[in-house]
């Protein structure tokens, strides 16, 4: 395959895979925005890696993926070896390649950002794994010896799936329980298909079942089975419960008709897009209040909040035919939590961004007709080091709106049965776990002898959003992986 041309990055510009044309997206196409590289493009893009010797990309990736090494294998066309190497650190590489905010993580740290454009790490990761899986490659567990140990995993989101993957590789039977009928957690029912096609999770289920992972879906722990029963039947339990209590902005008027919380909006819409015609009448597990979606065609939609969820809402509203879609965010663009790539895509699809706007109230009689906002400027940093958004006196105005979607983020909502089993929580509702190295450094614990991601019940481990608070797929995958390492140490020494 020839040696690597060191200066390939000069001749070959950074290039992403082709995207669905704008007019189709605006016309309601829900297909995944980015296509897959062809073989030649994948080799060229992977070949742009300098192998700079100090792989900042790997350090910045929460999973510490062996990025330069699998880029080199991709350049050489050794796709199955590249896929095997990608799986050594990442239980869900095709998912992360699609949804990671690479501009803030691996690609944001690429040496080539120095004027040449980062290597398209995420797109190559997706290419390698999609192609290998399509060609029938599967993780090789032929040398794994069954240990006779069994672990129950509660939650089939990225944390739970990553934990199950690592347990299977250690010869431990993982049984994954989820209240939903499909695996993936937010990957299946929250993140829209234009970022992640549903077929990706179906394929991952096939891979995990091939590794011996068992799924018990449509089962809610605490309602259908108790944690005590799981502890009696299994050697340990992993909690990957997610974080679903949405942040209540306490805005006057938030009970008006056509004011929607973001996640039920995305879930209901996802069901309808995928042909579940009865979705409007079905409740969403975990949400007491059922919402029926208003028709957005020709309507003025205002989305409040600038995170990934907000970006998914604005781009869904575009595809649903809204006449005008506006995103109001209280800080400036540089401080937006949403990925810069998603903001650029939203802008291209016609979304208007109003930065430095603090919502004050939702207006209307029975149905919302506007949002009162005030302009803000950035002031002193808060406890987390982020500059506070301070209201500029006398700057109020009203945004006309037919539909308002509130996307202020999520907080952990731990079930009451945890404390009955000695699983302690932190003040903010996060499950308290033993500190570990890597991407989780903020939780300190002085309980000597505990294992990574072990809770205050020694046989119960936890990770993902229910431990960190709402965050990212890649950090949930990291915590599931590390918790599995802790479980393996406890059970196998
Ligand atoms: P989840 O994915 O929430 O999975 C938890 C699972 O546990 C669920 O399936 C739930 O049904 C199950 N469960 C909970 N309680 C029980 C119980 N008692 N019994 C049985 N099952 C139970 N991150 C990114 O990196 N990139 C993105 O582009 C991105 N976009 C996002 C868009 C939206 C709309 C949202 C809401 C989040 C987004 N995120 C994104 C964040 C990411 O999805 C989460 O950080 C990640 O899914 C957390 O993984 P988890 O496994 O901890 O929890
Ligand atoms: Fe980049 Fe995410 Fe892949 Fe890590 S897992 S290399 S951060 S895309």
Structure report:
This protein has 493 residues and is an alpha/beta fold. It folds into 3 domains: 8-134, Fumarate Reductase Iron-sulfur Protein, Chain B, domain 2 (Orthogonal Bundle); 150-243 and 412-492, FAD/NAD(P)-binding domain, CATH 3.50.50; 249-409, FAD/NAD(P)-binding domain, CATH 3.50.50.60. 32% of the residues lie in helices and 16% in strands. The chain is built from 18 helices and 16 strands. The strands form 4 sheets. It has a 5-stranded parallel sheet, with helices on both faces. The longest helix has 20 residues, at 473-492. The two termini are 43 Å apart. Residues 439-446 have low confidence and may be disordered. The structure holds flavin-adenine dinucleotide and iron/sulfur cluster. Iron/sulfur cluster binds next to helix 7 and helix 8. The site of flavin-adenine dinucleotide (FAD) has 40 residues, from helix 9, strand 2, helix 10, helix 13 and helix 14.
CATH superfamily annotation of the largest domain: FAD/NAD(P)-binding domain
| DSSP, total strands | 16
Strand order of the largest sheet: 3-2-1-4-16
CATH architecture designation of the largest domain: 3-Layer(bba) Sandwich
Bound heterogens, unique: flavin-adenine dinucleotide, iron/sulfur cluster
Structural class: alpha/beta
Key words describing this protein structure:
alpha/beta; binds flavin-adenine dinucleotide; single chain; FAD/NAD(P)-binding domain; Fumarate Reductase Iron-sulfur Protein, Chain B, domain 2; 4Fe-4S; 5-stranded parallel β-sheet; 16 strands; binds iron/sulfur cluster; iron-sulfur; 493 residues
């Amino acid at each position: 395959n020839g040696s690597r041309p060191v200066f390939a990055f000069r001749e070959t510009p950074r290039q992403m895979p082709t995207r669905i044309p704008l007019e189709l997206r605006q016309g309601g196409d829900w297909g995944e925005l980015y296509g897959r590289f062809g073989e030649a493009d994948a080799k060229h893009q992977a070949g742009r890696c300098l192998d700079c010797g100090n792989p900042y990309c790997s350090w910045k990736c929460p999973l510490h993926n062996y990025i330069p090494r699998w880029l080199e294998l991709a350049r050489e066309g050794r796709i199955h070896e590249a896929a095997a190497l990608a799986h050594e650190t990442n239980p869900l590489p095709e998912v992360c390649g699609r949804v990671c905010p690479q501009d803030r993580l691996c690609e944001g740290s690429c040496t080539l950002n120095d004027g040449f454009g980062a290597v398209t790490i995420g797109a190559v990761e997706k290419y390698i794994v999609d192609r290998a899986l399509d060609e029938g490659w599967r993780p090789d567990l032929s040398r794994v010896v069954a240990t006779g140990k069994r672990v129950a995993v509660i939650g089939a989101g990225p944390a739970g799936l990553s934990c199950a993957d690592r347990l299977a590789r250690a010869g431990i039977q993982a049984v994954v329980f989820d209240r939903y009928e499909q695996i993936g957690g937010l990957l299946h029912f929250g993140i829209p298909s234009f970022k992640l096609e549903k077929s990706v999770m179906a394929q991952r289920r096939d891979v995990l079942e091939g590794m011996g992972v068992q799924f018990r879906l449509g089962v809610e722990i605490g309602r259908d089975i108790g944690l005590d029963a799981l502890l009696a039947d299994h050697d340990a339990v992993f909690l990957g419960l997610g974080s679903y209590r949405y942040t209540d902005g306490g805005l006057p008027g938030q009970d008006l008709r056509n004011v929607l919380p973001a996640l039920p909006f995305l879930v209901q819409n996802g069901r309808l897009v995928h042909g579940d015609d009865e979705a409007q009448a079905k409740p969403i597990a975990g949400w007491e209040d059922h919402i029926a979606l208003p028709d957005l065609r020709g309507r003025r939609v205002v989305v409040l909040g600038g995170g990934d969820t907000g970006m998914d809402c604005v781009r869904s509203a575009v595809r649903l035919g809204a006449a005008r879609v506006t995103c109001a965010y209280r800080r400036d663009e540089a401080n937006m939590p949403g990925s810069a790539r998603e903001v650029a895509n939203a802008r291209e699809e016609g979304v208007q961004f109003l930065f430095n706007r603090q919502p004050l109230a939702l207006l209307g009689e029975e149905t919302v007709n506007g949002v009162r906002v005030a302009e803000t400027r950035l002031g002193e940093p808060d406890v987390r080091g982020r500059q506070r958004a301070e209201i500029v006196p006398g700057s109020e105005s009203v945004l006309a709106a037919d539909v308002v979607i509130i996307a202020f983020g999520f907080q952990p909502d731990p079930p009451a049965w945890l404390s009955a089993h000695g699983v302690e929580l932190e003040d903010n509702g996060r499950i308290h776990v033993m500190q570990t190295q890597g991407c989780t450094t903020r939780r300190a614990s002085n309980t000597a002898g505990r294992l990574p991601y072990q809770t205050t019940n020694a046989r119960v481990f936890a990770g993902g959003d229910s431990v960190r608070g709402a965050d990212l797929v890649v950090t949930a995958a990291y915590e599931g992986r590390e918790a599995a390492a802790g479980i393996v140490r406890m059970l196998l020494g």
